[in-house]
Every structure is written in structure tokens, then in C-alpha cells.
Amino acid sequence: IKKFDNVIYNAKNGITSWIDEKLITVKPQY
């Protein structure tokens, strides 16, 4: 269970980082 939770945590972190990169690309001033 803990291993599965870690996978979800890493996935959420990866998605958040990807979204942040897209926001920076679309809105450089943000």
C-alpha cells in the first residue's frame, strides 16, 4: 500500500511540474 501511495505521489508531482512548465510557457510573467 505504501509503495502504491508513493507512485501516486510521484505522479501528482510530475503532473504538477508539467502544468507549471506549461503555465510559465504560456504566461512568462506569471
Write the layout of secondary structure elements.
Blueprint: H1 2-26
Task: Describe this entry's structure for a reader.
The protein is an all-alpha fold and 30 residues long. The chain has one domain (1-30). Helices cover 83% and strands 0% of the residues. It has one helix at residues 2-26. The mean pLDDT is 81.
Please compute the radius of gyration using only Cα atoms: 13 Å
Tell me the helix content.
over 70%
Number of strands: 0
User: Terminal Cα separation, in Å?
Assistant: 37 Å
Helix tally equals 1
Structural class: mainly alpha
> Which overall shape is indicated by the principal axes computed on the Cα atoms?
rod-shaped
Low-confidence stretches: none
Main sheet attributes: strand count, strand direction, barrel closure: none
Overall structural domain count: 1
Give me the strand/helix succession. H
Arithmetic mean pLDDT: 81
Range of strand content: under 5%
A few lines on this structure:
The chain has one domain.
